[in-house]
Design a protein that fits this description.
single chain; 288 residues; alpha/beta; Rossmann fold; eight-stranded mixed sheet; two-stranded antiparallel ribbon; 10 strands; binds S-adenosylmethionine
């Protein structure tokens, strides 16, 4: 079973997250207005963001509730990003802008918080949320994290929340992170990862080939070991990939979900999904 090709993946991502942004614009009090996904999983008590409860109250002060509710992340990268006033921070796949808005407040008026996202509707929503927050030291761009629209060595900290797994060509993403970070710059990334190795089964191959599972931040996830290797191969030091949360299969891919999942042996499915977890990834670009 083949992995979906790059063009198909990107087009599905833009369709899916564009629809999310549109639903959020239409009903800002809702999470996303549908029930299809992992990164914004519905609960028995109503829509609830995957990242609910992960942000410190001090970080959320002054952040519009709509930005908080529109978050589709899987953990809180601010918990590991040691930001300082005056820094330039870049958020890869900034979505509705929550992490950029928080970063803008943390780096202060002498710093800048940048967000890049493939989905134009998400960029428009993030700009609206930043305006509502009254924050001006932000800039959002439509762009691809595999070909970043920023100059070499122009960024102090690269952040990201539940996005690297969605990239089609992971090596390009790490090339670009290494290019835009200044020497000594750091990364603070939250992402879904595979703990250990997936079993060599037909079910695992079906999952990895499924476009819906890809868009749900599952099928394209790297193993912990692949994440570390990409970073060390790109000259990063102090690399740390730390699993911080485990998820149930229903959190990762809530119903309604692909037919192959419902048809799978429940024990085998549970074992397969138990490999997926949220992780914090820290590293520093070498000082040269
Ligand atoms: C799961 S959402 C996370 C959004 C945001 N980081 C948050 O925490 O709410 C994934 C986001 O990544 C964006 N994205 C996916 N692939 C991308 C790529 N190759 N380049 C830039 N953005 C991408 C999507 O458009 C979407 O807004």
């Amino acid at each position: 079973m083949a992995t979906p090709d790059t063009r198909t993946v990107k087009s599905a991502i833009v369709d899916r997250y564009g629809a999310r942004a549109a639903a959020q614009q239409a009903d800002p009090g809702s999470c996303c207005g549908d029930s299809e996904t992992s990164c914004c999983a519905p609960t028995p008590t109503g829509p609830q963001v995957f990242s609910t409860g992960l942000y410190a109250a001090e970080h959320l002060a002054g952040v519009p509730l709509t930005a908080e509710l529109a978050s589709l992340g899987c953990a809180n990268p601010h918990a590991l990003a040691d930001l300082a006033p005056g820094q330039t921070v870049l958020d890869l796949g900034s979505g509705a802008g929550l992490d950029v808005i928080i970063a803008a407040k943390r780096v202060g008026p002498s710093g800048r918080a940048l967000g890049v996202d493939l989905t134009p509707e998400m960029v428009a929503l993030a700009e609206q949320n930043a305006r509502d927050a009254g924050i001006s030291n932000v800039e959002f761009r439509v762009g691809d994290i595999e070909d970043l629209p920023y100059a070499d060595r122009s960024v102090d900290v690269v952040m990201s929340n539940c996005v690297l797994n969605l990239a089609s060509t992971k090596r390009d993403v790490f090339d670009e992170i290494a290019r835009v970070l200044r020497p000594g710059g750091r990364i603070a990334v939250a992402d879904v990862v595979i703990d250990g190795e997936l079993p060599a089964t037909e079910l695992a191959a079906t999952l990895r080939a499924d476009l819906f599972a890809w868009g749900s931040c599952i099928a394209g996830a790297l193993t912990v070991s692949e994440f570390s290797t990409f970073l060390t191969d790109h000259g990063f030091e102090h690399v740390d990939v730390d699993i911080v949360r485990r998820h149930t299969a229903d959190e990762l891919l809530p119903p309604p979900r692909p037919a192959w999942m419902d048809a799978a042996d429940p024990g085998e499915l549970r074992e397969l999904m138990s490999h997926y977890a949220s992780a914090f990834v820290r590293a520093a670009r070498a000082e040269r």
